[in-house]
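Tokens in:
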């Protein structure tokens, strides 16, 4: 039911609020009502609701990409303990100015300090205490810093925030030197 409400709010937000900022804040208010602590100016593109939303805390200026999972419990102890216990719980904290890439998974008890960038598809099993780090992999580990990232990718950066989708498409396709290849 919560999933249906999330998508309903997301769709209605698109029609009621012309600006992306209005829709973004409308979605954040809904997450706050569910019990998640969310700072200011956050962009959340996933349904991050878990069965324990009150165990999730997100700082200011955080972006959470699509299909990210914030998992606040681990039920596997039920097997290992022969049903003596049902769950292990852990709070998830995401520091200010952080970015979590698409399809990343954050496990119970993990804290990400300010400025953490989580690479797409990563599984974060341990807390990160080094500010402005880039982490990636399964299990995720530090793979660089913001300055390393900028040094490698500075020539590919484009600001499309004020462009319509048509203008963005035209600009990107008209400037192939900005397309990164691996």
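Residues out:
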């Amino acid at each position: 039911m919560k999933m249906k409400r999330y998508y309903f709010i997301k769709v209605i937000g698109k029609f009621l609020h012309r600006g992306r900022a209005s829709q973004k804040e409308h979605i954040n208010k809904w997450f706050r009502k569910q019990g998640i602590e969310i700072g200011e100016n956050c962009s959340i593109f996933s349904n991050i609701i878990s069965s324990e939303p009150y165990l999730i805390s997100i700082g200011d200026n955080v972006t959470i990409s699509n299909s990210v999972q914030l998992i606040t419990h681990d039920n596997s102890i039920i097997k290992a303990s022969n049903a003596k216990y049902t769950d292990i719980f852990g709070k998830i904290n995401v520091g200010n100015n952080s970015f979590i890439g698409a399809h990343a998974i954050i496990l119970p008890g993990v804290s990400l300090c300010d400025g953490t960038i989580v690479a797409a598809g990563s599984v974060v099993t341990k807390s990160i205490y080094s500010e402005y780090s880039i982490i990636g992999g399964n299990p995720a580990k530090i793979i660089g810093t913001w300055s390393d990232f900028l040094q490698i990718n500075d020539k590919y950066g484009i600001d499309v925030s004020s462009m319509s989708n048509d203008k963005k498409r035209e600009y990107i396709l008209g400037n192939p030197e900005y397309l990164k290849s691996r």
